[in-house]
Amino acid sequence: AYARMDREERAFDIMEEPIFILNEATLEEAFLAFQAHAATGLPVVNKHYRVTHYLTLTELLLEYFGTDKTE
Asked: How do 21-22 and 41-45 pair as beta strands?
C-alpha cells in the first residue's frame, strides 16, 4: 500500500473536517451529529477545543432513554 502512495501528497491533502460536539450541546444536537456522520463515538470539546470526553452512541442512547436499574 505504501508503494502506491503519492510521495508528494501530504497528510493535510487527505484530511477531512474535524467532527466533534461542544460541551454545551444538547442530547438532540449530539444525536444529530452522530446521525449526520454515521459515527459511533465523538469527541466532546470545551470552548478552547480541548477534548473533555469521548461520547459513544451507547452512552447517548442510555442517557436519552434512561435505564431501569430495578430489573
From this structure: parallel
Which pairing describes strands 41-45 and 51-56: parallel, antiparallel, or unpaired? antiparallel
CA 3 to chain centre: 31
Q: Which residue has the cell 473533555?
A: 52
Residue-level pLDDT at 8: 81
Amino acid in the structure at residue 46: N
- The separation between CA 25 and the C-alpha centre of its own chain, rounded to angstroms, equals 12
Half-sphere exposure of 55 (CA within 13 A, CB side): 25
Give residue for cell 446521525. Answer: 35
Dist CA 10 CA 30 (whole Å): 31
- Tens-digit pLDDT profile for residues 10-22: 888 888 889 999 9
